[in-house]
Design a protein that fits this description.
This protein has about 250 residues and is of the alpha+beta class. About 25% of the residues lie in helices and about 30% in strands. It is globular, with a radius of gyration of 18 Å. Bound molecules: cytidine-5'-diphosphate. The site of cytidine-5'-diphosphate has 13 residues, from α2 and α3.
Length: about 250
């Protein structure tokens, strides 16, 4: 087994400490809803358009509107330039973000329509899908769409033998030859405290998994406060964000 190689974080952050977070709503005035969410050097912008009639017609659902998410990293968001346009990773992240957000957005009042959510990452230092989902949830609330509850998301994981919250890119890339680092993006609902999405890349024991999900729950509580505060800044009491302190 050997020693634990990651007893202290290189950034001096505590193991359960998230990077500094900021959030702002209404950053794209021409959109129906918009928000930015930042954690450390990772920055995500979400823009919502809709509901509007879905074309082609055969894709419409007469019982409900549908949510469509498009995630993309900007070419210069990381040091090695990324080729513009969709790829397998961006398609996967778009899909999982769509699943997580669809579980809380209620579009049954908008049959045959689509709501488009565009998530763009101008700067990436790991945790872009969770930052993007945090921004998108705020943008959907800002657009005034009915939401059963809010969602908040965080990356947790294991670096060598240590459980940590909010891995950055450097931590994400550590020890790939040893026990490796394990990356677990988690999306939690605000009121039910249920897991709306969880992905797991790496290895972890069941007891460690339970512990790290508890760490994610706590971090999501802090993120929800940041999201709620940003939404209240633009709309006072008009928006109903459930599950936060201000409830
Ligand atoms: O960003 P997230 O943690 O949700 O997804 P990931 O696929 O685990 O990627 C982790 C990080 O790797 C990203 O946030 C980027 O900083 C970096 N990355 C990169 O440098 N080049 C890519 N083509 C994809 C990701």
């Amino acid at each position: 087994m050997g020693d634990n190689l990651y007893k202290e974080r290189y950034s001096k952050r505590g193991m359960t400490e998230v990077r500094p977070m900021t959030a702002k709503v209404g950053v794209v005035p021409s959109a129906d809803g918009s928000a930015i969410f930042e954690t450390g050097k990772t920055k995500a912008i979400a823009v919502v358009r809709g509901p509007r009639t879905l074309h082609p017609q055969h894709m419409q659902n007469a019982r409900t509107g549908i949510l469509r998410v498009n995630y993309g990293m900007m070419p210069f968001s990381v040091e090695d330039r990324i080729r513009p346009g969709p790829n397998r990773r961006s398609e996967e992240i778009s899909k999982v973000a769509e699943w997580a957000l669809s579980s809380v957005v209620d579009l049954s009042g908008f049959p045959n329509t689509v709501v488009d959510v565009f998530i763009q990452i101008p700067q990436a230092d790991a945790g872009t899908r969770v930052a993007g989902i945090n921004a998108a949830a705020m943008a959907l609330a800002h657009a005034g769409l009915p939401m059963k509850e809010m969602v908040s998301a965080i990356g947790v994981g294991k670096i060598d033998k240590t459980l940590v919250v909010d891995l950055d890119k450097y931590e994400d890339s550590l020890f790939h030859d040893g026990e490796g680092s394990t990356d677990i993006p988690v999306v939690m609902t605000s009121r039910g405290k249920e897991i709306a999405l969880l992905q797991l890349d790496g290895k972890i024991s069941f007891s460690e998994f339970r512990e790290v999900v508890e760490m994610a729950k706590k971090a999501c509580g802090d993120i929800l406060k940041v999201q709620t505060r940003a939404l209240h800044e633009v709309s006072g009491d008009r928006l109903q964000v459930t599950g936060g302190d201000d409830e």
